[in-house]
Structures are given as structure tokens and as C-alpha cells.
Amino acid sequence: MAHSKQQAAREFKRSLKWIVGIGVLTVIGALIYLNAMGAWSVHAVIATVLGVFISMLLGCGLFALAFFSDKSGHDDDVTNATSHHRDS
User: Fold this and answer.
1) Cα separation, 56 vs 54, whole angstroms
2) pLDDT recorded at residue 86
3) pTM of this prediction?
4) Furthest-apart CA pair in the chain: how many Å?
């Protein structure tokens, strides 16, 4: 079980690196789009950078956490703990 948790943690860290990288590329794409549309202002750039990057991190990060929870066995621990409670 410990090996599976360590493997899941390594996969999660690798996923986070990919998520951050894709988030940065998405922000760059959004800024290129802003520039092409002529909506380039300090406020628009700040809002786009924060909004796009945080949304990407939040959405993909929570999805990655769901997979991490399943692969590391945390879901099984909760299921086992609640099934013992119901049997009593």
C-alpha cells in the first residue's frame, strides 16, 4: 500500500507540472487573442492572467486530486471506515 501511495504522489506531482505548463500556455494564448482583438489594457491583461490561470489550476487541480485520492487508496480508507460504522 505504501508503494502505491508513493507512486500516486509522484504521478500527482507530475500532473501538477503539466497543469501549470498548460495553464501558462493557455494564458499566453489568451493574451495573444486579447492583443489581436485590440482589447489590450493593463486591467484586461491582469484580469485575463489571473482569471485564466486560476481557473485552469482550480479545475484541473481538483480533477487531479480526485485521481490522486483514488490511486493512493484514500477513497478505500474512507469506504472501509464508513462501512464498519454502518455494520455496528
Assistant:
1) 5
2) 55
3) 0.68
4) 66
